[in-house]
Amino acid sequence: MTSRLHLQGVRHHSPACARLVAERIERLRPSAVLIEGPADFNDRLDELALAHELPVAIYSYASTDAAVRRSWAPMCDYSPEWVALTEGRKAGAEVRFIDLPAWHESFEGVENRYSDAERRYTDAADRLCRAFAVDNVDALWDHLVEVADPDGLEARLDQYFALLRGEADTGAADTAREAYMTRWIRAALEAHDGPVLVVCGGFHAPALRRMIDAAPEATDAGPPALPEPPEGAEVGTYLVPYSFKRLDAFAGYQSGMPSPEYYQRLWEAGPEEAAAVLVQRITERLRDRGLHVSTSDLIGARSLTEGLARLRGHERPGRTDLLDGLASALISDDLERPLPWARRASLTVGTHPVVVEMTAALTGERVGALHPDTPRPPLVADAEAEMERLGLDVEGPLQLDLTKPVDLQRSRVLHCMRLLGLPGVHRVGGPSAGADVTAEEHWTLRASRDRLPALIEAGALGPTLGDAAQVRLEHRLERSLHDASGALDALAVLLFDAALCGRARLTGRLGQAVESAVDECGGLGAVGAALATVLALWRHDHLFGTAGSDLYAAVVTACASRILWLAEGLHAGPGPADLGRLGAMRALRDAVRHASPLVPPVATVTAAAQRIAVDGQAPPDLRGAALGLVWALGAPADAAAAAEGAAGPDRLGDWLAGLFAVAREEVLAEADDGGVVSAVDGLVAELNEQEFLVALPALRQAFAMFPPRERGLIAERVVALRGGGDARGLTARLRVDPLTVASSMALEARVEAVLAREDLRFGEESR
To answer: Which of 57, 282, 427, 558 could bond 242 through an S-S bridge, CB–CB 3.0 to 4.6 Å?
Structure first.
């Protein structure tokens, strides 16, 4: 029985392996072709026979309440699995996938079924690389397989994979998968009298061969049954368009074969033609981006490529020969990091522009397309119907008025698409968490070839855009609840996103989680951000449909009380103004103004704020903000006592920053009557030069809270206090940074002091 078994180990996405598989099918005319692939897709193999444009991938998912686990099995023209499927069908063989479904526990943590297991046999691979004097396993593979003499390739592959597998560590996942594939092989040998060809990853081939030799006969009737999905999980599988960019190892996909466009050309036309075409593509890309490439450069690159190929023992130039030759001819600068193809590394910021363009040219821009009859998840039809119904299947800028019902519907659909990460949907501006709510929203829409794959993959989340967005929000909620460090910030944003999507029923659980996070949060800024977000949702019913909600009301109450409690207990010395806690005091002011039934009475808030304003242990910015809160709420303030918080050059600017953050309008309203502007002018006038330099940075930060027009009004008041004149000069933009000017003045003062000490000032006689 084993004499009829022909087991071919391959490297995924290898043109040489794909050719070998095609040759073996033609020579053997097998009765069955068994392929490493998801067995749960066997009933739908006809979908793969449709006229797709490759690359495509079999996308599988397992969705639970907490998360979605995803896996892809991509195939391109030169994938051995794809060639086995297509050529096996042509030969009249029974074609079957024989691996476990992607949702099986053996694939836990595996995003891509055809990711090679190279990291587990690095020692053997490293020894081979040293023996053949190549940089890495990709160069080794090209040397031994892709550009080597095809004669004897089958035996060479068997030796290569046996060596690597013999030294690799294997685990329970490998054992489970190989046991399952072995049961398929035994069943096929029982069912067919003719040859049986197995095409699988080379890592598994030696183990499968040993297991079949040890026990060739099937113990069960027929092929193995599919395992049951994980309890409580919803599983599914669809074909999705794929792209060379997603397939490329330089982009992070550990397929084992980087530079997919190069291997596509190698598959179609051979090494010489692949090199010639890609040199032309690289040249065009470089010239389009303004990088000079002369004819002599190209001649030099060709000579270097051919010389490197001969030096490395290649009858024909390989991928690294081509890349190294071009890099040597076109790059004259010293490189700060190794070339990416020397170590298969993702490109990073700072990579030489010539290297970037060379890598991009060999990656390619091919994007697959599915045949129109390919089944799709319900989400695709729902999204396309919603976009057509609401006129969103357009390109260009889109302005929405959220007070109009149709525009509000459009906004909610677009926000659902945004949450699902669909390409071509970009929000430019509109309502945001913690900001003044606006009824105007701006988007930019554009067509994208990546949208269909993204929609199919998002189909794991639900049948409609709203349902899918809600599941995405629920998954974010689960992650937030397990991340105590930033839980409140994340939950507040989540509340706002839920409202923007129109998924109000989700917010019951969210609101409870926010209340709990507020009680546990010790950060004044985080509680303030949450209050600003929830207050906006509670107030603006016409935009969010959430006003008057008991749930949001409870969160507003909890946040306001927590802010007062944290602020009164905060003691710290002078330091930079904390914008987070100033935002919290501002949010508390807005809550008292607009949601008074939900928060402590005005008298209670202002009494607490007055205590903070005169607390000598409170940080200066918080003392200023507390005085501003009292002032903004119309209560009498003990300004004289509170102003003691501004005493000293290291406190003045921060105290003012707090005051301005909460009571900016009140400061401007009394500018004509003197008030704070006059008091600050007096305090600054009393500073000597050294004290002024200490106070200057914080003063600049404080007055930066006023927009230019308002700073102009303050300048006019200061000039009037000084007897009149032109106020424009005080707010004119300097050509030199004010801090630089101040530092120069300080340096001059120190020089003058040294000259005076040494009696070296100009005009005075020396002793």
So the answer is: 57
